[in-house]
């Protein structure tokens, strides 16, 4: 049996995005080579909502919620019925399959909240859970926290488009040998890979055959770059009985400060998630829920412009990293880059800390996304364009200095 | 081993406050005696933030947070350092013992969030947890969810002041026989009983002797009625090593729509709670955290007036219920009443549903707070004074109609 100490060691969060401020970095002075670099500090651990501000009208929508008073402060645990009603319609249209607002949708405190509830509703001691590697760092932690057993599924992302994707054979093997749940993100965090329609159809069919629950995190599916195609799992012809899709407005829409997410799918699982939410946080903050009224209803052209601006940053950072010979996949969607660095004289966690201290650049170590990714770093490039470019140049310079 | 089905059956939330809207009530028509009553519907399942609105300046404080942008959207998981800094000072003063803002305080999504994290940080499969009965309904559900074993501690609340309080002998027995955690609320939810200084000192000393973790929910400790004295556990001379105090501005201050809570105490446990928060919701909504700047800094006289107005409602409802011979303890603090009803012809859950359908009055069944409390109902009387009084009269009338 896992003790609480072991349980919480597995939840170690010192290198998690946003927590860098708690790290002890004074001991880095001894190994720092050269002086500190000048330049605007850039925190690539998350998007910069000052550079890409929240959806227009979001604070007014919040105020409308506040002014509604009690009915908005105390919603059902799964969220205000009226908001779910219109949201279900828009999310159903976007994902290609209708959603019952009453039974198949829950509003959560961020998509982190949705993931927690979804895994809490499906994983208990001994449950085998297939987890893609690399993928969002909390997936593995959540499975461990609920006592599940991780069955790793490699994601190929360094090949040609036709070679790339999750290892479907490994998924089938896992499903055949007692795996009950598969959790994955598409677009993938940290690589920006979008699962092909073939991969998605295969996963759906395999899950239907072997009665596996699918939890798909589509957080970044709206920020799709030129020429890319997105396939929604819930629009597949063959569907497993249990499927939960997770989306939220924290990234592309920069509404992270509101902590809003949604999960939709199998009614029985949504029901469980609501019961769990009742003891976790009761509900997403009532007034904040009103901000969901802006979601998928942004001003005309706003989303297109936002995507275009991100694509321009993506392209310039790719150029910089590739010129320095960092192998880097082209993100098809979302604002993550996952460059692979050449061998360094210092360990990867140390390099990441040096980067922060010496170059004013915060990134997330690859090891947060799967064991073994010591040589990669993740950047959320939803940043001020010029500052991001200058920071990428500093990363390249730092690698030059600490290279083996 | 508990299956997921069993696990979620234990989390059944149909009778939980706020969820009544999801209940099927059409089958009540057959057993309804007489017509529906007229009168303003009153939902005693939670406070009415329209009758007692949020702290003045709360929406402006929120807007200040929003206008701060990225730094307020993405705080450390335990909450924005600057907000914790000033809050720690005010909470330390209120509770009679200093708090380190850096190591001993976490901001959570409501006090529900704080309770979840505190129990998650201390309870795992097989942990024996002493739970007071009756007490806040989520305590028992949380212990079960984390795989703990409930050791019930009776709370005496129907005697004289000197007889009332938790059964200290039972607490000592529990501590002697391997109980690792005690969780309780003071003022007690649902009875409004405030633990005496003697009870608090005894609990603290016993926990220190037997190395038991104390989790105390002081959510309502600011709304203290005339002549009552409140004792803060964390101000005791003899302290156990592990102690967490939970407070938040959702009740007395009517800030529930912001989902804000705090937990403070043992640094090692706060650290664990933060790690857990990282996979549960990341953080309390960033912009909302800014509203904590209004807490314990309300305009002069505002809190006194609020307490006075609640005391007036309390006194009038007590008069109504006592005139009808419903045994009802006098709440010493907080806005809960827990009247005991005479024997009825219908089951307690049915009566509660009839009350909602026929009389427009929503209350929470006593069985939510401990097994066996079929004859009691809980009312949150933080309501419009006149509407609450009229609704209490309807409750008495309904009891007359359905009496055995």
UniProtKB/TrEMBL annotation, chains A, B:
Gene3D superfamilies: Aspartate Aminotransferase, domain 1 (3.90.1150.10), Type I PLP-dependent aspartate aminotransferase-like (Major domain) (3.40.640.10). One of its GO terms (molecular function) is pyridoxal phosphate binding. Its cofactor is pyridoxal 5'-phosphate. SUPFAM superfamilies: PLP-dependent transferases. Residues 67-384 form the Aminotransferase class I/classII large domain. It holds the Pfam family Aminotran_1_2. Keywords: Aminotransferase, Pyridoxal phosphate, Transferase. GO terms for biological process: amino acid metabolic process. InterPro entries: Aminotransferase_I/II_large (IPR004839), AspAT/PAT-like (IPR050596), PyrdxlP-dep_Trfase (IPR015424), PyrdxlP-dep_Trfase_major (IPR015421), PyrdxlP-dep_Trfase_small (IPR015422). Belongs to the class-I pyridoxal-phosphate-dependent aminotransferase family. This is Amino acid aminotransferase. It comes from Desulfosarcina widdelii.
């Amino acid at each position: 049996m896992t003790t609480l100490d072991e349980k919480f060691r597995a939840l170690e969060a010192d290198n998690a995005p946003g927590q860098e401020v708690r790290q002890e970095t004074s001991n880095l002075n001894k190994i720092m080579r050269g002086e500190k670099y000048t330049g605007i500090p850039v925190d690539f651990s998350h998007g910069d909502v000052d550079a890409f501000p929240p959806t227009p009208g979001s604070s007014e929508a919040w105020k409308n919620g506040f002014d509604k008073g009690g009915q908005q402060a105390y919603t059902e645990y799964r969220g205000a019925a009226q908001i779910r009603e219109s949201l279900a319609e828009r999310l159903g249209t976007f994902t290609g399959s209708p959603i019952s607002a009453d039974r198949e949708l829950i509003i959560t405190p961020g998509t982190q909240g949705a993931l927690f509830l979804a895994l809490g509703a499906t994983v208990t001691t001994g449950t085998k859970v297939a987890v893609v590697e690399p993928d969002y760092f909390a997936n593995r932690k959540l499975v461990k926290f609920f006592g599940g057993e991780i069955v790793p599924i490699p994601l190929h992302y360094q090949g040609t488009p036709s070679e790339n994707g999750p290892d479907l054979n490994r998924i089938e093997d896992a499903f055949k040998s007692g795996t009950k749940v598969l959790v994955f993100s598409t677009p993938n965090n940290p690589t920006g890979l979008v699962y092909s329609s073939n991969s998605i159809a295969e996963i759906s069919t395999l899950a239907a055959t072997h009665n596996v629950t699918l939890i798909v995190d589509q957080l970044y599916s709206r920020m799709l770059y030129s020429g890319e195609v997105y396939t929604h799992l819930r629009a597949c012809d063959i569907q497993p009985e249990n499927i939960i899709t997770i989306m939220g407005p924290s990234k592309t829409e920069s509404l992270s400060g509101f902590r809003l997410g949604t999960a939709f799918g199998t009614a029985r699982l949504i029901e469980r998630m609501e019961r769990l939410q009742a003891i976790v946080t009761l509900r997403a903050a009532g007034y904040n829920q009103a901000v969901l009224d802006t979601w998928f209803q942004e001003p005309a052209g706003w989303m297109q412009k936002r995507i275009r601006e991100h694509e321009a940053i993506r392209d310039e950072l790719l150029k910089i990293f590739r010129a320095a010979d960092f192998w880097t996949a082209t993100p098809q969607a979302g604002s993550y880059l996952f460059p692979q660095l050449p061998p360094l004289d210092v360990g990867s966690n140390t390099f990441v800390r040096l980067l922060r201290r010496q170059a004013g650049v915060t990134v997330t170590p690859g090891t947060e996304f799967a064991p073994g990714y010591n040589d990669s770093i993740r950047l959320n490039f939803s940043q001020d364009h010029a500052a991001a470019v200058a920071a990428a140049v500093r990363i390249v310079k730092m690698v030059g200095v600490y290279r083996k």
